[in-house]
Amino acid sequence: MINLTDEKMDKTTKKKKKTAECCGYPISIFFIVVNEFCERFSYYGMRAVLVLYFRYFLLWDDDLATSIYHAFVALCYLTPILGAIIADSWLGKFKTIIYLSIVYAIGQVTMAISTIHDITDANRDGTPDNFTFHIALSMLGLILIALGTGGIKPCVAAFGGDQFQEHQSRQLNTFFSVFYLCINAGSLLSTLITPVLRAQECGIHTQQQCYPLAFGVPAVLMVISLVVFIAGSGMYVKTDPEGNIMWSVCKCIGFAIKNRFRHRSSSYPKREHWMDWANEKYDKLLIAQIKMVLKVLFLYIPLPMFWTLFDQKGSRWTLQATTMSGDFGAFILQPDQMQTVNPILILTLVPIMDRLIFPLIQKCGLNFSPLKRMTVGMLFAAMAFVSAALVQIEIDKTLPNFPSSSESQLKVVNTYSTTLNVTISPNEHLLIESFGSSADYVTFDHQDITVSLNTNPVITKAFSLIKGGRQTLIIPSDPTVMYLKEDVKSKPREGKNAIRFVNGYTADLNITNLDSIEPSATTNYTLVNQGKRDFVLRHGEQWCEFSRKFGFGASYTFLIPSTVFSDDCESITEVEDMKPNSVHMALQIPQYFLITTGEVMFSVTGLQFSYSQAPKNMKSVLQAGWLCTNAVGNIIVLIVAELGKLPKQWAEYLLFASLLVAVSIIFSIMAYFYTYIDPAEIEAQVRKEQGLEPEEMEKETLEMEEKDEDQKNEQGVKQTKI
Ligand SMILES: C[C@H](N)C(=O)N[C@@H](CCCCN)C(=O)O
């Protein structure tokens, strides 16, 4: 009984509780922003290496890896609804954050364990023997992570907002910007660090890419995030959950619809709002609160389109970067590192916007309301995609002319001792020097060809080409055994270079990191990174070394002559199968700048707007609704990627840009009719109309809670009696 009274005292005095302040800000928010920094480091760090883990550890193909990745992101933005329900109707935000963070940390640890190949690598060949085990464990880890990260997401932002008193509205706005900066600082550091950790080698039996470290560090950060949050425990303003609010909302909406349907005849007088049909049974305050939430949720309908474009930074834009050159002189940027431009720009743009641009616009007497900012944000994102389309057109000009699905392409490489006249039926004549190749690929719209060489006697051989493929006809020192070798028909992944060797030497050769090659044979392609690479060729005691400097995304065939050891590798010839990328990655900076400006206007503002327009007891619900727009956006990416295969990538970018412009026009019309509200004022007004002063209202709630408590106690007694 004493405890109950204490609790009640706490509840009634809570509103007046003054939190410790520093420079006008509650000190407790320090713990919240540090917690957010660590959590976002954990999330983005894990996400940065996830696709590569799917692709190169679980050995999934590109399509499956991309689909599971986007499905995971979508799940992360669907679970906020669950988190909001738990917080608002059961545990309260504080406890929800703690419990779900524990789930999250367990998920990260599970994920890190699933990446230890040694667990199932019984034959010690460096690859796991039991993929099912690793897949099952990593999927379990990802589900727990999605539950954790999504579940706490609406609560942390809203819990931060709860720390502010009414007179701190200016500080509250700054808090949301600082909050966003912390998200991006975490994201920036982790996307720079975890790929480096992954590139390390580690293992018990064999040394492999160090995924356990790349996933382990985010797991540690998640534990730190939890510890920091708990450390601030004594300082927080903790608002209690207001009962099963979601259930009450659903029942109230259901009743309003049913009641409206029952009274559909024109003889019943119309009501101002369809929710007013719940008046007969439900509290006016609840109805007023639902109206506020529905108004905002309605406004959210067009928003997923923004995220559809925004989240393609991680997929389409990164793929675009793999066809570009990342040589910045002082440093080399990998295609997936280009994404770090976004958080870097956020860290620069948020202060500039907050301190300079928005105040300047205000000084000019322009009303740049939150919804106007969001519309402009959408237009910026659309412009970013126009910029991406222009870059794509430039890239397309430099890309090889790959065969269509009905065509075949052929190149000829001559390692015979003299120049050859090669005739490919019916009318293709090529003159190819010894240790040279045809200038480019010849395209055929049929697959069956006959090749004749002007040797003495003439050698003729029939071949069947691969439909939609690129091949090289290798003419070795004995031309009678000429053969076809399949070539790469797309840019090598991750901006790497595909290289292979044709052995024109008279005996087996060993080349660094490659299996031994027989005379006249051609190796399969090996991928090498950009930069200077050294190769050592060896046959018995003889050896020589040769070096080549590689750019990005090229493909070469190296022809090794019989004189290779006598001239110290000098005579090795290089045939360029595919030119290196020539469009510079710096050209992507404008599109990153535009999308990030759009993000500042749209996302930071949307976060503040969702908090400010929500009634006190439904703040997490609206945050969850806001995050849900993101989930839908990712689902749209999945659908478009699967269904809408446009032949040209630049056309797809323009399609997305046009769709977003259309959606932003619709949104601006909806925003025009939206009137900003002060939820607290509306609630006070409704209470007044009901003849209740705020204090009385609180008392009434307490009395109801006390009754509930007594009933529960009585039931407990009855149950123990039974
Ligand atoms: C890192 C990125 N710039 C960012 O700020 N992300 C925010 C908003 C996410 C919404 C889109 N996926 C975050 O909370 O992670």
Automatic annotation (TrEMBL):
It is found in: Apical cell membrane; Cell membrane; Membrane. The keyword Glycoprotein applies. Belongs to the major facilitator superfamily. Proton-dependent oligopeptide transporter (POT/PTR) (TC 2.A.17) family. This is Solute carrier family 15 member 1. It is a multi-pass membrane protein. GO terms for cellular component: apical plasma membrane. It comes from the Eukaryota. GO terms for biological process: oligopeptide transport; protein transport. Residues 699-715 have a biased composition (Basic and acidic residues). One of its GO terms (molecular function) is symporter activity. Electrogenic proton-coupled amino-acid transporter that transports oligopeptides of 2 to 4 amino acids with a preference for dipeptides. Transports neutral and monovalently charged peptides with a proton to peptide stoichiometry of 1:1 or 2:1. Primarily responsible for the absorption of dietary di- and tripeptides from the small intestinal lumen. Mediates transepithelial transport of muramyl and N-formylated bacterial dipeptides contributing to recognition of pathogenic bacteria by the mucosal immune system. Keywords: Cell membrane, Glycoprotein, Membrane, Peptide transport, Protein transport, Symport, Transmembrane, Transmembrane helix, Transport. It catalyses: glycyl-L-proline(out) + H(+)(out) = glycyl-L-proline(in) + H(+)(in); L-alanyl-L-prolylglycine(out) + H(+)(out) = L-alanyl-L-prolylglycine(in) + H(+)(in); L-methionyl-L-phenylalanyl-L-methionine(out) + H(+)(out) = L-methionyl-L-phenylalanyl-L-methionine(in) + H(+)(in); L-alanyl-L-proline(out) + H(+)(out) = L-alanyl-L-proline(in) + H(+)(in). The chain crosses the membrane at residues 64-85, 97-119, 131-152, 172-193, 213-237, 292-310, 374-393, 621-641, 653-677. Residues 688-722 are annotated as: Disordered. Gene3D superfamilies: MFS general substrate transporter like domains.
